[in-house]
Amino acid sequence: MIVVMDAGATEENVQQVIDKLVLAGFSVHRSTGAVHTVLGGVGPTETIDPAEFEVMEGVKECFRIMSPYKLANRSFRPQGTVVEFANGLRVGGNEIVIMAGPWCVESEEQIERCAEMVARDGAKVLRAGAFTLTSSPYSAPAGVGEDALRMLRKAADRHSLLVISEVMDAAEIALMEPYVDLLQVGARNMENFNLLRALGASKRPVLLKRGIAATVEELLLSAEYILSGGNYNVILCERGIRTFEGYTRHTMDISSIPVVKKLSHLPIIADPSHGTGRRDKVLPMARAAVAAGADGLLVEVHPDPDHALGDGAQSLKPEQFTELMKQLRGIASAVGRTI
Ligand code: PEP
Ligand code: MN
Q1: 94-109 residue pLDDT tens
Q2: Which atom of ligand 1 approaches the CA of 129 most closely?
């Protein structure tokens, strides 16, 4: 149930609606926009007549949301969500935010070189796994945990970057929070509902990647788990899905970007590295994602990708990343945005 308050509604009007919703058995989520306050009620929608709310003072309109996700629905925040970080960086606003770095932290020197390189070219967030695992138990080390997080944080701080890293398990959240600015949920964990619930209680923003066989609706339902726990700072990520095509590692579903923009208020970024699995395909897909309206990109870059511990084939070489940033600036300005 969505209740949209009038532009001139008083705090008392808002409180009366909240009280009535609570009394009727709803849990209430509030979104205070520049013009309208919107109240999202999750509860026994079928038994309530929206007219009961529409006659209340200060209420503009009230309607049921038919889609299974309520808080991720565009109507909860028609103006769109902007996830804002302590250093002022905003995801979901006019700026397209580039997050870049290696698949995982390999050493102090490697992550320092990555940070230096991506910061110089204009990325704002350093990515790297610290607990990352691969699809095969035999193919790569399982990350080096807290030591890796420490190295990642130090390298990012030296170059005024924020940090994004993947959280694999609810038990790791508390350990990671002091080191990372954005907690990444990997494609294979998109339906790990215990993890999503735990992230709903975190103070850190969350980047939720689309599962390799998940529909957009399933992605939004997973986001709903985090939002319903009270953490509204969720960024979605299109990272390619499994299709019959074998030439690329996954099929980069660019169309999900405008689809998500219509259905949801949440920002969405794109990961053309996992989306294609081949470094020569990353730049064209990055251009397409920005042209399609992505709010940012997550890109794998390595100083020496042929010797990377993981994801080398899809990691850009330093000079390729420089070229990517240069070309994206042109695309961004053509669609009225900045990088
Ligand atoms: C990653 O970004 O490091 C990663 C493992 O991606 P995904 O979950 O999309 O496979
Ligand atoms: Mn990977």
Answers
A1: 999 999 999 999 999 9
A2: 3
